[in-house]
Design brief:
The two termini are 18 Å apart. The chain has one domain. With 79 residues, it is an all-alpha fold.
Length: 79
């Protein structure tokens, strides 16, 4: 996933964590853990008070994740 200047409200932490867990290298992860990982990797959050966070992710990144339902994350990880 690539960062953008603005917040992407199309996908939130809950949907993004499912994209990850459905990937070939994914595993079950709780929403809170996913949100923490996004913070650690430098993504910004629109509203930390909400249950499911929206991040500054390029729309093309989430579109690719949605279309493949998993394989984009696998290609980015170096084993």
């Amino acid at each position: 996933m690539a960062p953008s200047k603005g917040i992407n409200y199309a996908d939130d932490s809950y949907s993004l964590k499912h994209y990850f867990s459905d990937s070939g290298c994914g595993f079950y992860i709780m929403n809170g853990m996913f949100k923490g990982a996004m913070l650690v990797t430098g993504f910004k959050v629109a509203d930390k008070q909400s249950k499911n966070w929206c991040f500054n992710i390029k729309p093309s990144s989430t579109t690719n994740l949605y279309r493949t339902k998993a394989n984009i994350i696998d290609k980015k990880i170096k084993y």
